């Protein structure tokens, strides 16, 4: 059981000031990492991908919606499922409210899943989301970007290593439109998605933290507490004053 260490205000201030040095160093390292990420080389997307969206069929280039940058969230939703992945749903709950600001920085966002569009639209309505979401059903997009794995078909490469698993996996990919030439600049998977979850970063500043195991990631370890946001019961709901 967690037992807080209780000290005087002056002792707390001394400890907090000392810890601030570590926080500032982490911030400098994070900025340096972001700069190094931007300097990664890019690869031309030679293959044509067609998606099914609310406005009809669309190519990858159409998803940019006239902007230079495109962020794709690979949302786990198998064609046979009737609902999307609860963890991916939690990711989008975390991201959805801030996506409107991306357009001011020449950046578009879209979620992509293999499930047919009708299932995506139905689940999207249930969740109350408004972000763009298209279906890659019938294309090789998910396989080529290593979020639908099938070892029998040679698609068992995930998170930059060979794995012995199959099925749908989460990820995020970034594309750049260089005067009509579409380039793939970045992809991250699994624990790499943690940085996009402000929910966890809020918990990180609390005494109890994430209250999971040492892996500290929604996509690994004990994350069984995650629910669709319309399924949290009275036991987990906030207490009303």
TrEMBL record:
SUPFAM superfamilies: Thioredoxin-like (SSF52833)
Pfam name, any one: DUF899
InterPro entries: DUF899_thioredox (IPR010296), Thioredoxin-like_sf (IPR036249)
Stated name of the protein: DUF899 domain-containing protein
Organism: Amycolatopsis acididurans
Lineage, top ranks: Bacteria, Bacillati, Actinomycetota, Actinomycetes, Pseudonocardiales
């Amino acid at each position: 059981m967690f037992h807080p260490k209780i000290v005087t205000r002056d002792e707390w201030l001394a400890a907090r000031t000392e810890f601030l040095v570590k926080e500032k160093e982490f911030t400098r390292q994070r900025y340096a990492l972001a700069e190094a990420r931007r300097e990664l080389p890019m690869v031309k997307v030679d293959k044509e991908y067609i998606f099914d969206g609310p406005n009809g069929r669309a190519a990858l280039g159409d998803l940019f919606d006239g902007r230079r940058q495109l962020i794709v969230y690979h949302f786990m939703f198998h064609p046979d499922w009737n609902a999307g992945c609860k963890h991916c749903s939690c990711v989008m709950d975390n991201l959805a409210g801030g996506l409107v600001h991306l357009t001011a920085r020449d950046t578009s966002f879209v979620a992509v899943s293999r499930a047919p569009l009708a299932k995506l639209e139905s689940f999207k309505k249930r969740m109350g989301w408004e972000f763009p979401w298209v279906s890659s059903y019938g294309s090789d997009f998910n396989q080529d970007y290593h979020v639908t794995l099938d070892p029998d078909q040679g698609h068992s490469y995930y998170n930059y290593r060979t794995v012995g698993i199959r099925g749908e996996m989460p990820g995020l990919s970034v594309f750049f439109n260089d005067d009509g030439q579409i380039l793939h600049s970045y992809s991250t998977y699994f624990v790499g998605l943690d940085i996009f979850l402000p929910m966890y970063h809020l918990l990180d500043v609390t005494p109890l933290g994430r209250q999971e195991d040492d892996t500290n990631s929604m996509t690994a370890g004990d994350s069984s507490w995650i629910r669709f946001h319309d399924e949290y019961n009275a036991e987990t709901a906030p207490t009303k004053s």
